[in-house]
Amino acid sequence: MYKLFIGILIIGLCLGYITNDLLTNPTLILEQPTPGLPEQPSPQQRITLEDITQTTNDLTIHKPATLLVHYTNTNSMDPTLDENSIGIELPYTNQQLHEGDIISYDYEGQRLVHRIQTINGNTLTLQGDNSNTSHTITDKNIKGILIGILY
Fold first, then answer.
1. What angle do CA 133, 138, 142 make, to 5 degrees?
2. What are the tens digits of pLDDT across the range 55-97?
3. For 13-28, b where at least 16 C-beta lie within 10 A, e where not — what string?
4. Measured between alpha carbons, how far is 109 from 91 in angstroms, rounded to an integer?
5. Which of 62, 61, 66 is nearest to 90 (CA)?
6. Alpha carbon distances (Å) from 81 to 40, 66, 99
7. What pairing do the DSSP bridges indicate for beta strands 102-107 and 142-150?
8. 67: domain CATH number?
9. 137 belongs to a structural domain
10. Residue 7 falls inside a structural domain
């Protein structure tokens, strides 16, 4: 009887430890790198784990001055962005930009959202993920930096 009690106690402690670990550290690594695939420029990380609070009921991103943005169905950024995507954007205030970042910008009277292909000083070449057309702008045209996408 004593051994049964000790066994149940150990199992209970193990389950408690695992449950606590999952609730307090919910980060999961879902995929390992695939050998042989070329690296593509990705957006710079602008949200860290310290910026995120997760409880059993809520997920909060602590980034001041963020904007929620909606997109029209232009198909230029498919499959990354589409009409039902909700973007989280930081207003551009001369932050350092990187190839692979997705930005919103004014171009010929329109507000567009595309990925940075190249940066040469304050001149940027941008292109949609699903587009063959590129735009060249200066940093004065930039309005925001996409820091997250909700689907």
1. 85
2. 999 999 999 999 999 999 999 999 999 999 999 999 999 999 9
3. eeeeeeeeeeeeeeee
4. 19
5. 66
6. 17, 18, 18
7. antiparallel
8. 2.10.109.10
9. yes
10. no
- As a whole number, mean pLDDT of residues 16-42 equals 70
DSSP string, the chain: -HHHHHHHHHHHHHHHHHHHHHHH-------PPPTTPPP---PPP---GGGEEE-SS-EEE--TT-EEEE--S--TTTTTS-TT-EEEEEEPSS----TT-EEEEEETTEEEEEEEEEEETTEEEEE-TT-S-EEEEEGGGEEEEEEEEE-
Residue appearing with tokens 């735009």:
135
- pLDDT over 90, % of the chain: 73
Q: pLDDT tens, 108-129?
A: 999 999 999 999 999 999 999 9
